[in-house]
Amino acid sequence: MNTSIPWEWYRTFLAVLREGSLSGASRRLSITQPTAGRHIAALESALGQVLFTRSQTGLLATETALALRVHAEAMESTANTLARTASNFSHNSASIHGVVRVSASDVIGVEVLPPLIARLRESHPQITIELVLSNRFRIYCTGKPILLYA
Hints:
- Residues 5-62 form the HTH lysR-type domain.
- InterPro entries: LysR_HTH_N, LysR_subst-bd, WH-like_DNA-bd_sf, WH_DNA-bd_sf.
- This protein is α+β, with helices and mostly antiparallel strands.
- 56% of the residues lie in helices and 15% in strands.
């Protein structure tokens, strides 16, 4: 299994789940239908799993796809939170400083966050990122970081 799967493939995966078709997903994401199809085929290949089967009414999610959905949605939520956090700062990189706290599951912390955090730190070197990685819901509720990533 490939562990360096681009976020765009998961984003397309979620859109296909929500829309039920490649054409619906491509409209939602403003990409072409062939691009959406390539994303799904590449994700299936990287995971070594079939995620959708064709039917007369569109694409049907397999059990694997349904099991992955919650994790992909968590990745989406974390990516959106990072984008919102970064956009809350002024556009003057020199003046941006402070602490950004992110709580995430282990999968998101290993697969999704590193490139996003690297870009954020590259464009805003004065910030400190506190990252909490845990698969336990209780950790998310405490607001206390247990692992520093800077």
